[in-house]
């Protein structure tokens, strides 16, 4: 089984935008985060 190394994966613009929102308000609903970054709620949840 391949070892998952988070350090070897780079963050895309969506990941960075989601992280910025969550860092500001970690109680924000997934639906609101999805609206802010123009993704589906399912994509944000992953």
From TrEMBL:
<protein>
    <submittedName>
        <fullName>AsnC family transcriptional regulator</fullName>
    </submittedName>
</protein>
<dbReference type="InterPro" id="IPR036388">
    <property type="entry name" value="WH-like_DNA-bd_sf"/>
</dbReference>
<dbReference type="InterPro" id="IPR036390">
    <property type="entry name" value="WH_DNA-bd_sf"/>
</dbReference>
<dbReference type="Pfam" id="PF13404">
    <property type="entry name" value="HTH_AsnC-type"/>
</dbReference>
<dbReference type="GO" id="GO:0043565">
    <property type="term" value="F:sequence-specific DNA binding"/>
</dbReference>
<feature type="domain" description="HTH asnC-type">
    <location>
        <begin position="11"/>
        <end position="46"/>
    </location>
</feature>
<dbReference type="InterPro" id="IPR000485">
    <property type="entry name" value="AsnC-type_HTH_dom"/>
</dbReference>
